[in-house]
User: Fold this.
Amino acid sequence: MTGIKTTGEKKMMLFTGRAHPELAKEVAAELGVGLVPTTAREFANGEIYVRFQESVRGADCFLIQSHTAPINTWIMEQLIMIDALKRASARSISVIIPFYGYARQDKKHRGREPISARLMADLLKTAGANRIITMDLHADQVQGYFDGPVDHLFALPVLTSYIGGRVDRGKLTVVSPDAGRVRVADRWADKLGAPLAIVHKRRDPDVANQVTVHEVVGDVNGRVCVLVDDMIDTGGTICAAADALFANGAEDVIVAATHGVLSGPAADRLKNSKVSEFIFTNSLPTPSEVELDKITVLSMAPTIARAVREVFEDGSVTSLFEGDA
Assistant:
């Protein structure tokens, strides 16, 4: 006999960066595991240092880090953590990114622009990531930028379940805030059995976050409108779309989005908006300055935990969303 036999048992380890530890703790609780103790700090010049306090040799490692503000800091921390896992002989490294930074820069609109979403994928691969688990990408084609498996999770089942139990479906209309979100809104309409409307807008290419709403395509008069989007950043687009719906006779407007980025003037815009409720998931931490009574945050921890378990046990992540995606 030559060689050495092992038991063949696999070991899963769960890690988190410092961007959104609350979500990581929820996922860990769902999985019934503890987060691996990690030392992370900055040197005086801002460089990030990371060290894991347990051996990761031969383990299937899952690293959770959502790209929230300050986004570049947490992306860099994540890359350093991946590198540390690779150099510590982890068996595999699956990177869980509930909100994938730079996903909006998925193509060149004009000359001399970067495709930063592709750069992000290259950085993750170079650092040592074997797999990406992410949620509701701004553009589906970003999945193809990573040279390896990408599990694309959807918040739609969680969001539609909440709204379906809250609103009279007979009065419900699903609304896309622009032409680019029509496909997503159509999935919502099918799931809720509701008609679809579209807000047509035009964005100034030279001025960031400036949107002019032109018209509403579809009947929203006397209807409860659910505006759906993948993310709310400064809130300009969604609040302008809501104003257009009210101007066209909507009885009420609810906003549902996976990622509540909520930067810059978002707090004031959401507070002053006539929208009755903003619904987000906990893919990102809600900034303290926008903790309003009309903001509802739904947890995606059970969905992420199920995806992690399927990956670890060589199951099917797609099976989680059959009939929903």
In short: The first helix runs from residue 21 to 31. The mean pLDDT is 93. The chain is about 30% helix and 25% strand. The first strand starts at residue 12 and ends at 16.
